[in-house]
Design a protein that fits this description.
alpha/beta, DNA polymerase, domain 1, 3 domains, five-stranded mixed β-sheet, two-stranded antiparallel ribbon, 13 helices, 17% strand
Length: 274
């Protein structure tokens, strides 16, 4: 059977690939195999990956809601939009957990013009400027044009280091996305010396790996929150579910009804831990 991916391309359905993605939810291997077989039984030729995802999500939720929430991590990040500001705040939280100092939306002077850099990171004497590209469509890829534009911006900033006695401070440029990159963007990034970080790239350590390593799941994984409540939290710059159970007062400050606080906090603890 051939299935349709988010970008419209087709590929042969692979149950092992489905099982690997479901295992990342923390569900035991034996349960995942049985659940994947149930999902496979519903698949037809031409089915979309989104339909398969929803089927797998339902099966995991029947097993344990925590597994389903973790499985939805990629989709949950897509739901942090429509603007990219919550993703910028979320990325800062991830990087702080990795030991970086992180600031959002900084104005930096280049050789030719001023630039608003989405995130500035500092660690071990190195200052990094990161341009973030948020997409709320799973099949949308960050392309070569974007990589060219970002490389040009950071060259302007890096040249200013020489011209202005290191006033700009940024020594390295990153391009970060919550989806994937085109093959041309990856090829150019490797050649031009700009780090690309996205979903599945680099293969050895990418955005998904950082989320799982830090345990900082976005608040949009919580099934106890309505879409409206998610927006209320994001508008108050609350992006990480750990923040909710570490500081329950944040729920009231964001306007979440008190009668729901307990179930939200309990789910947050199950998914994200203490």
């Amino acid at each position: 059977m051939r299935i349709v991916k988010g970008d419209g391309s087709r590929e042969e359905f692979d149950i092992e690939k489905l099982e690997r993605s479901m295992l990342r939810s923390g569900a035991p291997k034996e349960a995942v195999h049985a659940l994947a077989l149930k999902v496979t039984a519903t698949i037809r030729d031409g089915m979309t990956t989104s339909e398969i995802y929803r089927s797998a999500f339902r099966q995991l939720k029947k097993e344990e809601s925590t597994f389903a929430a973790r499985y939805s991590m990629r989709r949950a990040i897509l739901e942090m939009g429509p603007t990219g500001f919550p993703f910028e705040d979320y990325f800062c939280a991830l990087m702080r957990a990795k030991g970086y100092q992180a600031k959002v939306r900084q104005i930096i002077t280049g050789t030719c013009t001023h630039h608003e850099v989405d995130v500035v990171l500092e660690k071990d004497g190195l200052t990094i400027g990161a341009e973030l590209k948020f997409h709320n469509t799973p099949g949308f890829k960050t392309d070569l044009k974007t990589a060219l534009y970002v490389r040009a911006r950071f060259w302007d900033i890096e040249y200013a280091i020489e011209d202005q006695s290191k006033k700009s401070k940024v020594q390295e440029g990153w391009l970060v996305t919550n989806t994937k990159f085109t093959s041309q963007a990856i090829e150019y990034g490797e050649c031009a010396g700009i780090k690309l970080l996205g979903w599945g790239h680099p293969t050895d350590y990418n955005l998904a790996d950082i989320v799982r390593e830090t345990g900082l799941y976005p608040i949009t994984v919580l099934t106890t929150l309505t879409k409206k409540e998610q927006r209320q939290l994001l508008q108050n710059q609350i992006t990480v579910c750990k923040d909710i159970h570490n500081n329950p007062d944040l729920l009231a400050k964001a306007g979440i009804a008190k009668r729901k606080h307990r179930e939200i906090i309990e789910e947050s603890l199950r998914i994200c831990g203490s």
